[in-house]
Specification:
The protein is of the alpha+beta class and 596 residues long. The mean pLDDT is 89. The strands form 4 sheets. A 9-stranded mixed β-sheet has the order 1-6-5-4-7-3-2-8-9, covered by helices on one side. 37% of the residues lie in helices and 20% in strands. Strand 12 and strand 13 (293-296) form a beta hairpin. The chain has 3 domains: 3-219, Heat Shock Protein 90, CATH 3.30.565.10; 223-351, Ribosomal Protein S5, domain 2; 391-594, Heat shock protein 90, C-terminal domain (Four Helix Bundle (Hemerythrin (Met), subunit A)). It is elongated and about 105 Å long. Bound molecules: adenosine-5'-triphosphate. Adenosine-5'-triphosphate is lined by residues 33, 37-38, 41, 78, 80-83, 91-92, 123, 125-126, 171, 244. Its main location: cytoplasm. Molecular chaperone. Has ATPase activity.
């Protein structure tokens, strides 16, 4: 029989090296990882069999574990979907998941003493087998195929692949246990580990004892138990399992919904940003189960702006053989989604009462939530009410508190969106302090988008300070200034829609403001940087009649050169480059030379 020898992808080599050499405690998680893979593979086969009867699972489908003390092996067998030759090479010989690759580099840069807990809590999937095994043999037959393949490796950089025999589809993993890991050859030890880590697995997990396979799990899904029967550790373990996270949950939401739709739900809000961002997709991965059986994790049970919530929803209101088509159209899912969003929002409202803890939550997930204001008009106001913002008066304020502080005469909510580092010193803020008007300082990239979409909050309009020129129209302006405005407008042409004198400017000679309708300046900047057309009127130029430079210009006949200088200065102040930086430097140098 021909045997092929292949080398692991470089990332795998690194990961294996780190796993094997930095983990001394918590090795038992290898069993959790391998059993979880077996359960996932069985779930996949069950789901595929819905559209292809030939793939149907045997009635006694289970995950079976047996240890052979004499041979020093542990065998883990499943009736799952199996792997073809190329899948064995792809799944076990390379790291396809970007998250795992990123995890590997994080692991490499972590202090050696921190690595065990990182590995122990995160899990490294299949490769954890090499923590306890000096050689791993995987025999797999893909459901629907006749041939089977055997993958063998000692984890030292290479693996072999050869044709093999397996009576039925599924995967067998044979671990040749290292001398220092013999404790795992005891069935009782294996059972304890399964109970601890894998009790929620919905497929039977059986362990061979005295020649007979015995159920190792209670077989009662955690989310179907009463809250009083579950310990905080059990919740946390389950959270780490479903969420691939390694922190403690910030919130655990476990309830049974009864009414128009019935289901059990166990949802978690992480307390840290997941190490793996929501990988390739932004969509919710909350798992849908029907009568305990896993159906899919892409039913989009929660909207994208709650994509950080992980967990399980299990309903009796759908048939076990629910197909993808039914999932897309059934009103049951729509009803479930509604209940879930409202439940998560009310949990967040309750959590918001502890300002300190909630601050950390918002630092992690506040920007994702803001996307909800943009995408989900039905919940926009509720989301906005939960958020906190920096302002010219407070480090963090809610919109309600902002409104409560509004002085007499202020009717709108003012905000300035832009680069967080420059907000506090922006000339756009000039004039607001004098009026006693607080301004929200919005430094997230998404902040350029959502205020315009929200429009108003509790009947107060959200107004960008870059569009609040009306507040500061200068009263009586000397004729020379009015003439200067006209001359500047002539010189600047279509770049500027209007030049006006403003009372808001204190230290700056001029400033750009956006037209009242259309995108504000922060939004225009984003559009420009993204190479997108900027719609709406060009900006206005406000000049400061009491600034020395403006006074001097008002006395001049020809302001052509000065006009473009003034415009470029205003652009610079907003963090934009002048259109032609070299030309601008020439102008400035010439102006300085005149006064030198
Ligand atoms: N028993 C199995 N049956 C079928 N496919 C398997 C089995 N075990 C592993 N695989 C395949 O190998 C891939 C890699 O497994 P591995 O455990 O390393 O990562 P994962 O399960 O994708 O991620 P994680 O362990 O972080 O959840 C799996 O995604 C799956 O496609």
């Amino acid at each position: 029989m021909t045997e092929e020898t292949r080398r692991f992808g470089t990332e795998v080599g690194r990961l294996l090296d780190l796993v094997v050499h930095s983990l001394y405690s918590d090795r038992e998680i290898f069993l959790r990882e391998l059993v979880a893979n077996a359960a996932d593979a069985t779930d996949k086969r069950r789901f595929m069999a819905l559209s292809d009867g030939a793939l149907a699972l045997p009635d006694n489908a289970a995950i079976r574990i047996s240890a052979d003390k004499a041979a020093r092996t542990i065998r883990i067998e499943d009736n799952g979907i199996g792997m073809s030759k190329e899948e064995l090479a792809e799944n076990l010989g390379t790291i396809a998941r970007s998250g795992t690759a990123a995890f590997t580099s994080q692991l490499a840069s972590a202090k050696p003493e921190d690595r065990p807990s990182l590995i122990g809590q995160f899990g490294v999937g299949f490769y954890s087998a090499f923590m306890v095994a000096e050689k791993v043999e995987v025999t797999s037959r893909k459901a629907g195929h006749e041939e089977a393949w055997e993958w063998v490796s000692d984890g030292q950089g290479e693996y072999t692949l050869k044709s093999a025999a397996r009576g039925a589809p599924g995967t067998t993993i044979l671990l040749h246990i290292k001398p220092d890991a013999e404790e795992y050859l005891e069935p009782i030890r294996l059972k304890t580990i399964i109970r601890k880590w894998a009790d929620h697995i919905t497929w039977p997990v059986e362990i061979e004892e005295d020649g007979k396979f015995e159920a190792a799990t209670e077989g009662k899904a955690l989310w179907r138990k009463n809250r009083s029967e579950i310990t905080p550790e059990e919740y946390a373990d389950f959270y780490r399992h479903v969420g691939h996270n390694f922190d403690e949950p910030f919130a655990t939401i476990h309830w049974r919904a009864e009414g128009t739709v019935e289901f059990n739900a166990l949802l978690f809000i992480p307390s840290q940003k997941p190490f793996m961002p929501v990988e390739e997709s932004r969509e919710s991965k909350v798992r849908l189960h029907v009568k305990r059986m896993f159906i899919t994790d892409d039913a989009k049970l929660l909207p994208n702006w709650l994509n950080f919530v992980v967990g399980v929803v299990d309903t009796e209101d759908l048939p076990l053989n629910v197909s993808r088509e039914i999932l897309q159209s059934t009103p049951v899912l729509e009803k479930i989604r509604k209940v879930l969003v409202n439940r998560v929002l009310s949990e967040l409202k309750a959590k918001a009462k502890d300002a300190e803890a909630f601050k950390a939550f918002l630092e992690n997930f506040g920007s994702v939530m803001k996307e909800g204001i943009y995408e989900d008009t039905g919940h926009a106001a509720e989301i906005a009410a939960l958020l906190r913002f920096a302002s010219t008066k407070e480090d963090a304020t809610t919109l309600d508190d902002y409104i409560a502080r509004m002085p007499e005469g202020q009717s709108d909510i003012y905000y300035l969106a832009g680069d967080a580092a420059h907000l506090k010193t922006s000339p756009q803020l000039e004039g607001f302090a004098e009026k006693g008007y607080e301004v929200l300082l919005l430094g997230d990239a998404i902040d350029a988008f959502w205020p315009g979409r929200l429009g108003s909050y509790k009947e107060k309009k959200l107004v960008s300070v870059s569009q609040a020129g009306n507040l500061f129209a200068a009263g009586d302006v000397p004729e020379a200034i009015t003439n200067l405005c006209t001359k500047l407008k002539e010189a600047l042409g279509e770049d500027i829609s209007e030049v006006t004198a403003s009372s808001r400017l204190k230290d700056s000679p001029a400033m750009l403001v956006a037209a009242e309708a259309g995108p504000d300046l922060a939004m225009q900047r984003l559009l420009r940087r993204a190479g997108r057309p900027v719609f709406g009127l060009p900006p206005k130029l406000e000049i400061n009649p009491s600034h020395k430079l403006v006074e001097a210009l008002a006395a001049k006949e020809d302001v052509k050169e000065a006009a473009s200088l003034l415009l470029n200065l205003a652009k610079l102040q907003d963090g934009d480059l002048p259109e032609n930086p070299a030309e601008f430097v020439k102008q400035i140098s010439a102006a300085l030379a005149e006064n030198a």
